[in-house]
Each structure stands twice: as C-alpha cells, then as structure tokens.
Amino acid sequence: MDIEAWLRGLGLEQYAPAFRDNDIDADVVPRLTPEDLTAVGILSVGHRRKLLDAIAALRAEPAPAGERAAEVTAKRPIETPSASASSAERRQLTVMFCDLVGSTALASRLDPEDMRDVIGAYHACIAETIGQFDGFVGRYMGDGVLVYFGYPQAHEDDAERAVRAGLALVERIGQLQSGAGALASRIGIATGLVVVGDLVGTGEAQERGVVGETPNLAARLQAIAPANGVIIAGATRRLVGNLFEYRDLGTVEIKGLETPITVWQVLRPSAIDSRFEALRSPSLSPLVGRDAEMELLLRRWG
Fold it and tell me: Is the pTM for the entire model greater than 0.70?
C-alpha cells in the first residue's frame, strides 16, 4: 500500500509528510485512532472524519489469501499466552489511575473541537510517558486513564516503574496548555492480585479486562489525591521502600473496603545512594547475641 497515493486519493496529500515523519506505514494505518490523528497534527474535524472512514474501509477489506497466511505465520512465533482469548492469568499487578482535574469545568468553557484537541494531547502525553516505563494503557475513559504495570510484560520493579511514571506524568501534563491555563492531573496507584486477560466487549470496544480489588482501589486513591499529586497504597509503599520521599496521609476510609487503609503521597525520588539500603533497610533487624560469630567473620576477613 502506497501511503502517499492513498492520501492523494482522499484529497489529503498535504498530510503525507506528517505520516512519513511519524513512521506511519501500511501496517500502522488500519490501527490508527482519532487520538493518533490528532497527535500527528490533523486538527480539522472534517479531515479526521474522512480519514477514519477510509481506515474503517481498510479494516473491512479482506486481505488476499497469501497475505493473510503470511500474517498468521509472522505473528505465530511471538504470540504469548496472554494474547489468546482463554488465557486469563492470576497476577500481581500495579495499577495506576490518572484523571484530569477540572475537566467538566474545562469542557463548559471550551468549544467541543478545542476540548477534543486538549484531550487528544493529554492522551498522547500519557501514552508516550507510560511507554517509556514499559507500562500498558489498559483503557481510556474520557479524561480518565487506566494503566497496568506487570501486564502483559512483567518486571521485578513494576511498582517502582509505576511511581516514577506517575511523577513524570504530573510534571508533563502540567506543561500542557488548554487555552484556559495549564492542565493538572491526579494519580492513584495500588498493587495487588488480579485476574487479567479476559476479553471484554466486542468490535472496537473490545479490551483486556482486569478483575480484582486493585483497579478500584487505584481509582479511589486518585479521587482523594490533590491536584498534581500521586497517592499510593500500603502494598505499593512496601515494594518501593525508601526510593522516594513521601508525605504520610494517615489512614483513610475507602468506599467498599471494610477497614481503613494507610496512604502516602509521593513527593519526589529520594537522595539515597544505595538502592539496597532504600529497598531493604526498613525490613532488616540488627544482629543480637552473635558476638562470637561476628568475631569469627572479622578474623576470617582479616
């Protein structure tokens, strides 16, 4: 598929450089979303609508048998268990919920097209930042975004990645302008066991669902966070240790939970040089009654 020829056929050849600069090729075009088109600079609603209709036609057009076979063969080696419809997994997941502050008031002041551009820039900022920390955007819900760390790819330090991503997000979103001032966000982060991977919905609304208390807890924490604040629950706090500086917010009652939980606001990365000390020192106890053993170790060391 010749992208420039395709755009020329739609009378939109002026966007060919934007597609080329953003590495949009024939494989990427059928997966483009309205947010993607906004992110590459297509601000005209009419042009976006025309492109979306053409993209929908591409999705509906059956590929030649040879191409379909080649596509299946190419995808089979990298298919993972989490990619199949029946591969729901029980995992420990760190979940982030990010929300835009004052979006209702902002929508009442801005023209709908201007508001759409603001949300598009906001979504693009989140996708780029989360990608840098190997997170996975699970769901866009208007100005709310649900993000997973630990699915589909797990890392030993997913909780730390989530917190660092949260701090980076509040900073970068705060640099976005809405026409009525800078944007602000609230972020809640929680860690716990979930079942993830079930396909939910149909068609373009289909997504990988997450079942468990953790996503709900992250959303509740977001709701009590201050503007440009990152709030974490106790399980996440234990995993990240003293890698960050915190403000202890005490115990709060969370709707749906029987007992109050302790929460912290993450302020900034800490200045501790030793990663081991930051992660392990709170759980280490001093040796007691081991004088003979310590003397033996020191003699051997000497």
Answer: no
